[in-house]
Amino acid sequence: MNATPRWLDPEQQAAWDSFIRMQEKLIGRLARRVQADSRMSPSDYIVLAKLTEAGGRMRFMDLTKLVEWEKSRMSHQVARMAKRGLVRKEDCPDDGRGAFVVATPAGREAIEEAAPVHVEHVRRLFVEALTQEELDTLARISDRVLAHLETQPD
């Protein structure tokens, strides 16, 4: 017995559609800019940004969870980045099965060059479109949705 779907009402659908269109357009534009400005893929950028924010070294699984990727996707991404000298993997002495992902000097240099340009695009495309009150409201809404997601099954 299938339950009747709980369709979104027109206002809910409009809010959802607007959110998705905004998010996809914004992320798409930022991704293209990162690629053009730094010759890094958006995936390279997010891995290096999260690694350097954490001091340049993270457990592989912690990084995977932080960026909300599947283990196999992170494994392939780290392998590609390691071939280009942006990161390296190190064995974890506490856990024979675990590993660390470490930003190399070349990786640190790449993110240090890309980040200022990226933040200017974020400012131009996102921050400048909103008032400070709207940014505060958006942050509260985002935090509320994130907290709600933590209570829901995947």
UniProtKB/TrEMBL annotation:
Pfam families: MarR_2 (PF12802). It comes from the Bacteria. Residues 1-147 form the HTH marR-type domain. InterPro entries: HTH_MarR-typ (IPR000835), MarR/SlyA-like (IPR039422), WH-like_DNA-bd_sf (IPR036388), WH_DNA-bd_sf (IPR036390). One of its GO terms (biological process) is response to stress. Gene3D superfamilies: Winged helix-like DNA-binding domain superfamily/Winged helix DNA-binding domain. One of its GO terms (molecular function) is DNA-binding transcription factor activity. This is MarR family transcriptional regulator. It comes from Streptomyces globisporus.
